[in-house]
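Quick log. Single chain, no ligands specified.
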Amino acid sequence: MPVPAEEGMALPTPIDDAIALHDRALELQESAQLAEAETCCRRALALIEQSDGPEHPDVANVLNTLASILDQRGSFHEAERHARRASQIMDQLGDRVQGVEADQIRIESLTLLGTLARNRADYGKAEPYLQCALHLAEQAFGADATQTASARNNLAVLYKYTGAFDQAELLYRQALKSLERAFGPGHLELATVYHNLGGLEHARGRHGRGEPLARKGYEIRLRELGPDHPDSVADAAALASILDALGRREEAEKLFRHALAVFERLYGPEHYEVAVNLNNLAALKQAQGDLVEAERLYRRALHMKEKLLGAEHPDTALTANNLAMLLPWLGRKEEAGLMCRRALGILEKNLGPDHPKVATCRKNYAGILGPSTTP
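-> predicted structure:
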């Protein structure tokens, strides 16, 4: 028999349950328990839709959370569908729903749509979403607000991918300045921007400048979150790539292997983060002269990227380019040339002829064909 409620004590409502489930989903997402987070978030969504109807701002808020979780799980198409629905709800509500919370929901939807478009290499669609998110954050919260700093950081990530390195650095530096003013130096909120600044210098080939930035972000997260938190592990992998480029391969390999083990445990063996680390570890093994192991790792990474991103994605092409540069050392120059040429075509199509990665791949292709031959 059910126990009667105490006199004067209100019973939980469906909305109370939904809020509790949504809060729990956020906690689980933070600790990388993504399957459980998704389950809680879907239950919260169903309760809010049932209670408030399908076009309520709270529905849009939970949809954003669900889209973010699905993005982390690698379910990019479903994540985009939920983020788009959240954005459409807020557009339909228009001026009827205003205030800080509504602005934040709109910014998050735009950021998710921009990030997901960037992930599939649709940079032309990603930029308007991320620019709009930044403009709305500046209008709603002010040019120096933490929300605006986050929007600047997200747009800067896109510019790094498109090769607009100067624009990316300007935005990163502005974001870092705002966050330092809000939280003080060394705060956890600054770690992401340090990570990204280090990655930008790495992309520019200025590895010595990138190391202290990447290391600072990693050290902040180690202190605040510990070595096995997914954000700390991502920092470790980013730092390892820079150390590998600087020839400090023993330290780099230790970090790569730790990152790979944690990501496989958290996300499973077929996740994008696993593929990225396999590619980077393969490059390290190639530099160490372990060519057979390097090929095995490259091929596993390439297979995973083709499955997760598609055969025509520029990230897939980068791993194909790396494998192509290995194959001549294994006596397979013809296969290398075919693979590198295909990678070059994909990169030119997605990034344009003037992107730094295209220039590198073109140089690699010319090297495979011979010193007197150009593509």
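Confidence is low (pLDDT under 50) at residues 1-5.
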